[in-house]
Amino acid sequence: LRRLDLVLCLAENSIGPSALRNDDIITFKSGRTCEINNTDAEGRLVLADGVARACLGDDMPSLVVTMATLTGAQMVATGKTFAAAVADDEDTEVRVVRAGRRSGDLVHPLPYCPEVFNPEFKSQVADSKNSVKDRMNGQTSCAAQFVGNNLPDDFEGSWLHVDMAGPSMKGERATGYGVGLMLAMMEAEGFEAE
Questions:
Q1: Cys-Cys link to 73, which of 5, 15, 138, 139 (CB 3.0-4.6 A)?
Q2: CB distance 83 to 164 below 8 Å
Q3: Reduced to 3 states, what is the DSSP secondary structure of residue 129?
Q4: What are phi and psi of 85, to 5 degrees?
Q5: 19-52 in b/e burial notation, b at 16+ Cβ within 10 A?
Q6: Which DSSP string corresponds to 34-103?
Q7: Are 80 and 164 spatial neighbours (Cβ–Cβ below 8 Å)?
Q8: Short-list 158, 47, 50, CA closest to 95
Q9: Which pLDDT does position 13 carry in this prediction?
Q10: What is the pLDDT of residue 191?
Q11: Average pLDDT by stretches of 10, the chain with 194 residues
C-alpha cells in the first residue's frame, strides 16, 4: 500500500472585477513573485501554488507529479496521441514513458533544462513573468519549468510534469487520459511493471 496525496489545482479563465490583468504582480505560496503578462496562462499559476502546497509540512513527498492541459504547444511538440513529459531526472522520465506504454496513455519526453528555459520568464519587477517572451523556444518545456520553479529549495524528491492537452480530448469528448498513466506509475494492481 502506498500513500498518495492529491492537490487539485483548478482554474477558470473568466472575466470579472477580481480577474487578473496584465502587469498585475502576484505572490505564490512558494514566496516567488510573478508579473502577469498573459491572462490566458492561468493554469500554471494555480499549479505553481499546488506544487508548493504539496511540499508543505514535515513529510516531503518523494515524487511530485503535475498533470494538466497546460499548453496548446504540446500538440505541436508531441501530437494528439502522446502527452509531453518533463522530468527533472532520467529515472522518472524513463518510468513515465514505460508507464505510458503499459497503460496505453502514451507519453514522450521533452527537454528539462532550466538554464535554457528560465530566461524566457525574465521580469524587471518580479521573480518571473507568467508567459514566455519567445513562443518558439520550447514553449511546453518552458511552461513546465515555470511550475517546477515553485518547488521548495529544500525539495529532494523527483518532479514530473505531464502536459496532456492533445490526448485529453477526442472530438468533443474527454478521453480520461492520465488515470491509467498514474495507476501504472504507482504500479497498481493490473498495471505492474514486468
A1: 139
A2: yes
A3: strand
A4: -120, 135
A5: ebeeeeeeebbbeeebbbbebebbbbbbbbbbbb
A6: EE-S-TT--HHHHHHHHHHHHT-SSS--SEEEEEE---THHHHHHTTTSEEEEESSHHHHHHHHHHHHHH
A7: no
A8: 158
A9: 78
A10: 87
A11: 84 86 96 96 95 91 96 96 98 97 97 96 98 92 97 96 98 96 92 82
Q: What is the DSSP letter of 158?
A: E
Contact residues for 187 (Cβ-Cβ < 8 A; gap 6+): 193
Give the separation between CA 179 and CA 9, rounded to whole angstroms: 16
**Model pTM above 0.90:** yes
3-state secondary structure of 148: helix
The C-alpha cell at 63 is 515524487
- Return the residue matching grid coordinates 498513466: 181
Helices 43-54, 139-148: axis angle to 10 degrees equals 40
Tell me which residue has cell 507568467.
130
